[in-house]
Structures are given as C-alpha cells and as structure tokens.
Amino acid sequence: MVGERREIVVVGGGVAGCAVTRWLASDHDVLLLEANQIAGDASGKASGMVTNGASFRAHPEFARTAAAFFEEFDGTGSFTFTERESVGLVAEGGGDWGREEAKRMRAAGFDVEFADAASLEERYPGIFDLNGYEGAVIYNDTGWLDPYTYTMTLADTAADRGADVRTGVRVTDLLVDDGAVVGVESTDGVVHADTVVVAAGWRTRELCSPQLQLPVRPFRWQAATLNPGQPIPDWYPMGWDPVINRYWRPEHNGSIHVGGGEAVVTNPGSRRKTVPEEFKVRLATEIPGLHRRLEKATFVRGDTCPTGDATTPDTYPIIDTPDEGPENLVVATGFHIGGIMSSPAIADAVRSLVTGEELGFSLDPFSLDRFEVRSSEFPFVCHMAETEITDARIGATGSKNPGE
Length: 404
Fold this sequence. Notes:
Mean pLDDT: 89
Number of helices: 9
Largest sheet: 9 strands, mixed
C-alpha cells in the first residue's frame, strides 16, 4: 500500500494530542492529524483551571507532575499562566471531610488548608454568602490559563521542534497487520507508522474498534461569561461548589467564567453552539445567591464543547498500551477530569509508553484493564459533585438532553 512514512502518528489536535506531539517531537519524527482545527472542540472551551483538588485527589503524583509545568511554560508565545487560590466549598455537615482532605493533601506535599465559614469570610471579605456552607478547602498552589491559547501554543512549539501538524485531515481507520498497528488511513491518504497514538476524545472508541473496545462515551458541559457589573479584586479566588455543580474563575478583563451542568450526550456526533436556556436560568438564580459581587451580573455569552468531551465509568482517563489491543497502539482518552490541567502528565505518560523511559508516577490507575465491562453504556458520574447523574436527575440539574 503506497503512502508516506512517519515514526509516530498522533491522532487528535486537542490538548492531549498537542501535548503528546510536543513531548515527542524533539527526538522523533511525529505527524499530528486533526480532523478540524486545533483546540476546535472540547479543549478550546474548557475551564482552564489548574488545580490539585477535586480533580486528582486520588492521584497526587500525577497532579504534581502536571502542575509543575505551567509556571515554566508561562511566557512562551502568547501563553500566560495566572496564579490564583482555589476554593472548594464544603456544605454544612462536611467539615470533618474538609479537614481530612486538607490533611491528606498536605501529606502529599501540596499547600492546602481548611477554613471554616468565619475564616473564609475574613480571608475573602464580601465575596461569598456562606449560608448553608461550613467552610472550604483552600488550595494555594493553583491558577488558571486560557485553554485555547495554551493548546495552540503547544501545537506551535511542537512544530518548532520539528513535528508536522496537519489540520482538516480526518483519520478514518487504523491499519493493522499481523496483530500490530502499522499506520492509519486518512482523508489525506495512507500514513505508515511504527507507533500510533490515538488521543481523539470520545471518538477514540470508534476509531479503535473493532480491534479494541474502550468504555468511553461523550458528555457535554455548559459555561458562561458573566459581567459582574462592578470591579472584581485581583485576589478574587477561583473555585467550585459541588452542591450546585458549578465552578468559577475570574478573567483578566474583569469578567467571571462560570461552568458546570454536565450531562451525557444522547446523540453522539451532534453539535451544539449555544447553551440551553435552562442553564442561563439556573445561573441567574444560583450565582447571585452565592457570590455577593455577582448580584448584578449580566450574561455575556455561553460556551459548550461542540460535540462533547470524553468520560469513563470512573471519570479517570485511560492512558495505556492495552495488552488486548494490537501492538504499537497507544490510547489517551477519557479526560473528564482536567484534560487541560493534566496535559503535561499525559504527555509524560505517553512518552514513557512509547520510549520505555522511566516515569515519575504509576500508570496503573489509568490502565484499561481496571474496567471489567467495556460497554459505552454506563451511568454518567459528575466528578465535581461526586454523584451519579442518572437520566432522572438530568432534568433536575438543568442539563436535559444537551446532545440533542
């Protein structure tokens, strides 16, 4: 079969694929293929929050590896990283959990503390209405970034290192010969390769089938930009509220980015450009009741991942070279929890799988074989609230049928 040859083909131009390409390009011949545009789906619309809290409490070494990169990368091209404290609110009755969470995270080497409601008010005067809250876990070594700019900068620096980054090229199939992946078929022709890395979000499942079954399905979250209607102090914290399943962070222009409202996509492949009206209504009732500085906030615009993000049954990713799949295939998908913030660790992990280099954390928590069932029809779990969102609850959260 005639076609070009590359050492490594990376499928997917989201944050994971771009980070992997950058990490490998310095000493490998890498081709990145993206069906549409770089950061054109979930990555470009992500929260941009870089925390060490709810997202990776189960895997601190993974979180530490990721977080260390952003300060170093700050100032590269147009990319900036803004340090900002994170506040994980704790509802009444959860104080013991909050204190234990802070203790555990400190033992893992993170700068974390628990503040009761009185201490929280003293630390952030006039910010929160804490009626119904016992306090918050405060994460001090955190910050935020613009996800689109970050992903584009990863792609640009990958190209600077010698990678070939192509957009508008859809990979249609994996080429498999004698139990090993030997390349890909694409709308631009055949590419032969020694290794193929598939980091195509929820589409990774369909691309790897039938050679490999992955328990991955699409979901969609909603986000909005709010104009506070008044100046926001430069110490205004970012954070999340698991009670109402919302996160927030400030922007440099004084606006506030608010998101949440996760739910399954019922029609995979469908596209959404606007947020549901009920999401706006819920923001109008929830946010002023919690954020005093946002009592007069106005809705500026809404955002959502156009076709959907990818999740797994336990909300943690799959980063593996599965034994049951063909050789020379690496999968990196299911970044429900912090694809942006974990991207440096994802890239480290994939590079280790490709080169055999030693890795500073275990990949066991992210192996495919932790799942006995490989179906894509599994209950969706909202990791922020740490509760299962069934079809019956989707309407109650204001996120009904976001994939329609």
